[in-house]
């Protein structure tokens, strides 16, 4: 055996012990027998470059340093008030003067204010009240404001509920940084009845297939698995985040910091109970996985046992918390950018500026100069 192979094996075995992973568990994850792994570590069989890659990939799935993180990925809250200024000033703690106003809205609201991807809708209809919507980018941008305000998501959600806010939607995104989830494998388990769930439906899409139109990043979601009905108040969406990062950012799939994403999508009452649990225990791990474990588990088929007695699959057991560090609620603040504002200027302001320039050229009256004189 070459010296460099001996050094590699020693380093590999040391790291396995450092991670606290048994040979049996690692062998299952790598798809080889424990006996074969034992012979490799003892130097009794040669280790190929292909096997080195396979073993290292399997081992990194047990890396105790934050294999999973969780983010808020969608927040929609309705407030029973027509005082949009109060919501923006006291709940969001933003300055309405820095927000752009549009005299149209979505969800049958008649107007809205926004800054970046943070949207606040309003309407004269008292039953509709004020609606806050933060999609993925909006959540990241709002985290920048929370950071500056020295507040957390917990603080904000508490303020919102105390003010009478009604949860309409909450998405919790669990990021898998090491590839412990295998989407095609989970899909196959659904087909083989190795998915034990109260849900009655699942849908899967291969990379490049057209997925549901309401997805924010439908162009680059890779292999995607929906568990549960998209019309229900709770369902899960699991997809290859690494593929999305490759499509959108050009990051090679093997170098992507997030391999997969497991999204818990909650609406109305289910969203409210999740927030209540978060604010009661301040434990993101508890809230997220109590929801997942309530609705689904993946098992390995055992011919001599009833389906309800089949053991959890190794990958799934690891994902839901067996012998790994607890998941933490993290933030990834992103600064507000001018992109959306510039598009608004191009659409709403630039045609008027061109008209004023034409008037100035024909009459010599510089209305734009007069406007700028009076602008604070």
Automatic annotation (TrEMBL):
The keyword Disulfide bond does not apply. Residues 12-68 form the HTH cro/C1-type domain. It comes from the Bacteria. One of its GO terms (molecular function) is translation initiation factor activity. CDD domains: HTH_XRE. The keyword rRNA-binding does not apply. It holds the Pfam family HTH_3. It comes from Faecalibacillus intestinalis. This is Replication initiation factor domain-containing protein. InterPro entries: Cro/C1-type_HTH (IPR001387), Lambda_DNA-bd_dom_sf (IPR010982), MobT (IPR048093), REP-like_C (IPR003491), Rol_Rep_N (IPR040819). The lineage of its organism: Bacteria, Bacillati, Bacillota, Erysipelotrichia, Erysipelotrichales. Keywords: Initiation factor, Protein biosynthesis.
């Amino acid at each position: 055996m070459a010296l460099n192979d001996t050094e590699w094996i020693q380093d590999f075995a040391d790291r396995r012990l450092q991670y606290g992973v048994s040979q049996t568990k690692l062998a299952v994850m790598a798809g080889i027998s424990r006996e074969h792994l034992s012979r490799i570590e003892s130097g009794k069989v040669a280790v190929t470059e292909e096997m080195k890659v396979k073993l290292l990939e399997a081992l990194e799935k047990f890396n105790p340093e934050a294999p999973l993180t969780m983010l808020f990925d969608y927040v929609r809250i309705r407030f029973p008030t027509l005082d949009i200024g109060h919501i923006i000033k006291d709940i969001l703690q933003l300055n309405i003067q820095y927000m752009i106003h549009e005299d149209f809205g979505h969800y049958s609201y008649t107007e809205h204010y926004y800054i970046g991807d943070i949207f606040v809708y309003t309407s004269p209809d008292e039953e509709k009240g004020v609606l806050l919507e933060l999609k993925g980018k909006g959540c990241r941008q709002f985290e920048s404001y929370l950071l500056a305000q020295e507040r957390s998501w917990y603080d904000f959600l508490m303020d919102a509920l105390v003010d009478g806010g009604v949860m309409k939607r909450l998405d919790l995104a669990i990021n898998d940084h090491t590839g412990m989830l295998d989407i095609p494998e989970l899909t196959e388990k659904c087909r083989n009845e190795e998915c034990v769930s109260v849900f009655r439906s699942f849908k899967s899409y291969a990379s490049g297939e057209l997925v549901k139109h309401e997805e924010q990043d439908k162009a680059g979601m890779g292999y995607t698995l929906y568990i549960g009905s998209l019309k229900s108040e709770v369902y899960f969406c699991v997809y290859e985040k690494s593929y999305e990062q490759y499509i959108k950012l050009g990051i090679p799939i093997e170098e992507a910091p997030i391999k997969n994403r497991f999204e818990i999508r909650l609406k109305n009452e289910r969203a409210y109970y999740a927030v209540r649990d978060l604010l009661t225990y301040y434990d993101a791990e508890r809230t997220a996985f109590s929801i997942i474990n309530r609705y689904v588990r993946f098992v390995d088929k055992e011919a001599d046992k009833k389906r309800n007695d089949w053991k959890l699959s190794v990958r799934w057991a690891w994902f839901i918390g067996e012998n790994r560090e607890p998941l933490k609620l993290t933030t990834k603040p992103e600064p507000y950018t001018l992109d959306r504002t510039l598009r608004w200027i191009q659409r709403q302001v630039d045609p008027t500026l061109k008209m004023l320039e034409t008037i100035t050229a024909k009459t010599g009256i510089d209305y734009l100069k007069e406007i700028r004189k009076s602008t604070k």
